[in-house]
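for the writeup, i need someone to sanity check this before i put it in the appendix. the sequnce is what the collaborator sent (i think, or maybe the updated version? ugh). structure was predicted straight from it, no edits. if anything looks off just tell me and ill rerun, i have time this weekend
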Amino acid sequence: MKLASIIQGEGEPLVILHGLFGMPDNWKTLAGDFAEQFEVHLIDQRNHGRSPHSDEHNYTVMAEDLLEYFEEHGIDKGHVMGHSMGGKTAMRFAMDHPERVDKLVVVDIGPQFYPIHHREILDALLSVDLERAQSRREAQNQLAQGIKDIGIQQFLLKNLHWVEKESLGWRFNLHGLNDQISNVGEALGNGEVYEGPTLFIAGGDSDYIDGGTFAHIREHFTQAVVETVEGAGHWVHAQRPKELFSLVLEFLG
């Protein structure tokens, strides 16, 4: 699958993968900072943003999408950083194609299985009747019936766009993601090992990486370093961008 992207800067390639319901815009400010030293590739993963939609959504095909992207853009080897679902894609890519990864950065997700975290969000999105919504405000009012957190509402509404005059639509493949949501939490396989340099960044207030995750990380990533950003939840890059930037820049050297 041919993935859409935003490319900026010059230098060693740094490929950044967003999380579920995300888009490159979530990383725009940090990408500008990294672009002073790297050639930054902000990727739209399949079923998100401007990349194609598909009934298939699992990390094997998403890693193959990324390999196709590397080949299309002449990237022999690059740094790969992913958040949440993007971190899972990055781990799968490193396992399947270790020769294409220079250094790996995984933000607030581990290699183990995760139960479905997003049922409430999916149900709220599915309840929005975009045919009835004549404005973004009306769509937000509908979304607010199921999601009270304004920050999450605004994060999701970044994906709302005018498909045509007086017709709103989601950029992500809502029904496809809903059908495949159980795959988003899938684990790495037993015995899979990546021996390259790896940085895991955990949000101090997040429950995605806890004490039990460390054993899973050590099992699969022999050179892994784990850093915790205090005061950050799951969206570390949005809540503590300066701290994340410093950790990643030091790691990439």
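The chain has two domains: 5-113+186-252, 119-179. Strands lie at 5-8, 12-17, 38-43, 78-83, 101-107, 160-164, 167-170, 194-203, 221-229.
thx in advance!!
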